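ARCHIVE CARD
SHELF: 3
SLOT: left
DATA:
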Amino acid sequence: MKKTVLAALVLCLALSGSLFAADAPEPIKIGAVFAVTGKASWLGEPERNTVKMIEAEVNAAGGINGRPIQVIVEDDAGLEPNTVNAVKKLVAKDNVVAIVGPTTTGTTMAVKPIAEEYGVPLISCAAAEAIVNPVFKWVFKTPQKDSDCAVRIYEHMKAKGLTKVAIITSTDAFGATGRAQLQAFAPVMGIEIVADESYAPSDTDMTAQLTKIKGTPAQALINWSVGPVQVVVVKNVRQLGMTIPLYQSHGFGNPKNIEACGAAGEGIIFPAGRLLVVEHLKDDLPQKAVLAKYKSEYEAKYKDQVSTFGGHAFDSLWLVIDALKAVGPDKAKLRDYIENRKGFVGTGGIFNFSAEDHCGLDKNAFEMMTVKEGKFMPLGI
């Protein structure tokens, strides 16, 4: 008799659990592809951390229209074949409604055709203007454009009376597209490139290239790369006793770069998003509240300094979430909503997308910064 009652009780509990499970709303699946490991992990790890933080925040508040979100993160280690496989899995197997990422320019370029083929919105966290120019129907990005980065650097040089520049760039997609922008805008802005050197992202010593540059009439040096290799350039420059101004691209916007550079990092000049200097911004700046909230929550949760790269993932995922709240989990409607989004206040700037512009930012999204006493500071402070 006792066994019969026990069996009946177990059956009831199982059935009730099934009923509760049946009543639970299906999550809205959003894909994310980041270089959580590998050489670009300085970028991908804060991106992963950011989207998981947002996922928890949204679900704690009841989800979207009563449905939780599930952010499925794939680690591509910054390798293009991995990214292709990850994106195909997310769209074909997981049936995600949108994808945030990838982390780098090269991996993004590799999967643009997949987003177009499957008709899924992809909001990249990589910087190259080539990601969105020419426009691909389903592809967007949130970092500021490398073309605007080149313009802001040259504007600062011209204001200082510097017209002869040496450039040194990495041979990966980020460096190659940045080099192309520097070359394109130099004659337009009255800048002469007197040396043009390059290096592989895996190189550990750029002394030979920099020695050549040292023998030119260059009045300034621009390095364009991302990840630990840009720190090598900085240290080599100081070791050679080069005293001309050293500019970096917006790929320098991670506090870990300052830590790795040490004293050699002092005086570096670069454009970046205002997240790095939020405490120095005026209170009436529309971005400040968003920047301060993200910085505070991220650093409290992860016990690590915030970076512009995590900010790119922040902007990308919130664009998707806002679109989901407005039009629901329909991929075509999500795409249309994002393409027509105006006045979206993100960490990277105030976005105004259009059919002709799938980045939505202009050069004013950049703040010119420097490294002063081991900290990022707006120029002029």
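SLOT: right
DATA:
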Amino acid sequence: MTLEEYTLEEKEAIEELRRRLEGEMSQEMFEDDNMFIRFLRARNFNMNAAETMLRNHIAWRKANNIDTILTDYTLKEVVEKYLTLNRIGFDKEGSPVLYSHFGNLDTKGMLKSIKKSDAMKSIVRRLETDILAMKEESAKRGKTVDKWIYIFNFENFSFSTATHKQTLDALSSLVTMYEANYPERLKAGYLINVQFYFTLAFSVIKPFLSGPTIKKINIFGRDGWKEALLKNIDADVLPAFLGGTRTDPDGNPACKTFINYGGLVPEHYYIRRSSKQFSQLPGIKKYTITRMSKIELIMTVTEPGSYIEWEFETKSKDIGFSLLYKEDNMDNSKVKELIPKQRIDTYMSSEMGMYKCERPGIYIIVFDNSYSWMFQKEVYCKA
């Protein structure tokens, strides 16, 4: 994008921000008008705020060697095989289109298999790859292409993932990193096939998203999203299962030759294994739930926006888990089901989760064994 494509006020703002940061960045960045305007727009042309944001970005790039990440950083094998995030092509205006079958992503297994730094670098490498593609597309089209489209498919998104504390912490960190360093890059986000569990996770992630980003996110259930995608993406680019006409060479509409669908991460990739049984850790309480019965753990929340966290395991078989809410301890206070009962099996590892409390009141964790006619359950819990 040349300076002539900006208004006089925008040109002046770009030059002022450039003047303030002369000598602070690479020559390529220094000559990039588009970078300056994106940071200015992200801060509503507040010059001091834009300068601070851009200085922080430059420091972040240096600290994490972002300028050489495409040549110097190699993705871990587990990421290559099980991270579902692929560019499927470009939209009608040349913007890269990225697809993730997020509901299939084994976030627990992935987080046990890589370091936090590798998780960040894997995503940043993807972003930087697509920025390079946008520069190439800009040269080809003779106009600036500086935004991308993301499609996240939440089909198969589970309760276990939606409330998993480590997953939510990792996603919050990634979103924070993205907002701070890739402003004004999102053209549109499509979250498709969302169901109830999505709302649990999104309530935690949403506060980390900027207002402009939220406005560009389009949320769909089972219907309506194919038509929306086709408005921006040609049918021959969009895979058949997403409403387009593109298939694999053998006619497979799933397009598995260029889309990674994720899946369970094999344990041999794990670099984090518990050296001590959860039940033996400090602060763990044991609850014995007889057959055809249930117990309730009651918590009083006084501040809206607080978080409830839990971690538990059973010694054998599964246990029903749910979260209820009522305004106060009065007997006639209406009880609302926040998380419907799920039968959770903790054979592989303890179940760790969190929930954002929108209102003060009484929150009740229920461990339910009422469906079992034969077996009592031992639950070890920290909440």
